[in-house]
Every structure is written in C-alpha cells, then in structure tokens.
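Take the subject:
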Amino acid sequence: MRMAKIFLLALAAAVAVTASAAPTEVARGVFLVRGEFVPGHQPDGNSVLFTAPKGLIVFDTGRHRQHTQLLIDFAAQRKTPLTDIINSHWHLDHTGGNLLLRERFPEVRIHASGAINDALGGFLANYADQLKEAIAKSPAGSDEVPGWQDELKLIASGDKLAPDDVIVSSAPRRIAGRTLDVHLEKNVVTAGDIWIFDPSTKVLVAGDLVTLPFPFLDTACPAHWKEALHRLGKVKFRLLIPGHGSPMIPAAFSTYRNAFDRLLECSASTETVAACSEGWIADAGDLLEAKDHDSAGKLAGYYIENVLRAPAEQTTKLCGE
C-alpha cells in the first residue's frame, strides 16, 4: 500500500488553508495551538498546552518548526518552563516537535506509549525509503524536496522523539503538579494511542482518535477505532479537542462517531466508493465547512480503496491479531 502521508503532501497543495495560529484559551489553563495544512507541506497536528503548578504540559508537538516555535514562545511569554510532553501517538505530525523542545528544554520529560519503537523499524523505515526514492526522482529545484528532507531528519532522530516515560496502562497521573486522566488505547490509530481527560475543566484531548476532514487510517485498525470512539462517547466531557480540526461539543462528537460508524458500514457493503465518500460528507454535516468537501472526498476515496476495502490480512496485524 502506498503510504497515505505522501498522498497527503500532494493533497495539501490543493487545500485552501492557513498556517498554525497563536495559542487560544479554550478552557481555564488550557490553550489550543491549531495544526493546519500548509500548501506544499505535510500537516501539523493540534497541540494543547496545560498550565500546571510546576510548569507547562503540552499534548502533541506538531511537525514543523513554525508550529513548535509557538509552543516555545508561549512558554517564554509566561516565563514558565515546558516540563512535560504527552504524545498521543508516534505519527510525525504529533511528535516531530519533540526534537526542538528537547533542545530548548533539556529537562523535559516525554510521556507516550512505546509504539514508536516498532514504527521506527517498520512504517517509518518504509516511509523513509519512499521519501529517498521520491527525492531521487524529483527534478532539480523541486519545491517538495526540502520538506521530504526534513521528514528524513526527523525519522533519523528516532530515539529523541521517543518517550522517557512509557505509558502501559490507563490511570490518573499527576504531571507537573496537575492531575490528568491518561488513557491508553491499543491497536486503534496505531499500536498505542494516548488520550487524556482533564477533570478540572472537563476537556478531553483525543489525538487522532478524532480527525477532520476525514479519519487518517494509515496505520489503523478500523474495527478497534470504532470501539474506542464509543468509549470516548461515555466520558462526560464539556469540550473535545481532536488531533486535526476544530474543538467539538458532545453533540458534534456524536455526529462524528455516527459518521464513522456509517463509513465502515458503507465500505463493507457493495456501494461504490463515490457513494461512500459522499455519504461521509453528508453524515459529517456541519463538522465540515464547504471548503473542506473537496479534500474530504479525496481522502475518503483514497482510504476506502486502500484501507477499508483492502485485503483482510492487511489490517490483521494492525489489529493485533
């Protein structure tokens, strides 16, 4: 299967988007740095900053320097060190900023699952090979090559992206003096995905368990993902922050979850790819702006053909079976 991350690179050039914006306070002591698609570049995931008695906690660090610099600037403005990073999963649009943050804050601790270790020898190694091949075939002066070279540098830094604290189970944790409910999901978006619930503000940070304009299924077990979304639906949250896209109130998340369920049902049926793609857009409804419909349709078509309708053995390993 051709890696969808390279597909997304091509898609980004066709999407009307902006760069990451400065942190916005979405709840008391909780700040969102939106990750965006920038034309000609791979995406950044959303980052969420939490103030805490002993410093700042950031959930996911983006990929590009411009995005991660916003986190550094926020810490500087508040004259508070960034002490802890929580990574939802190992995809580079959520962990790439770890490298720069380790340089700026040498004492920072990274909390995540250990799934990146297998990824470095599997998915990311294969992705690096594809990038090298793409670079070799690109004409001199290609605008895409610098971005691909940056990707290779991130992959090569592997162990610096990895956690100091490997999360192996779900439990409340006291991080930098702030209590967060930290949850581990196995074999969902990746082999190990972290989401958190902040009891003090009732904010749930979902990572790529929730993404717009479409679920990113590159390394996912779709059936387990469906189950995880239903677990999230049982949490009494006030606001859910996705890995990509705008924050959601509970009713909006319910729309997303139902759209995901119907996507899997349609993909397992004899309906055409086009019908299932159109169904996703219709079911997602107001979660998608009109400008998102084209990119949502392209992503839907790609993932339905290459993941949701792929041979069963393709997802067996990703589901831990």
User: Anything to note?
Assistant: The two ends are 19 Å apart (CA to CA). Residues 229 and 257 are 6 Å apart (CA to CA).
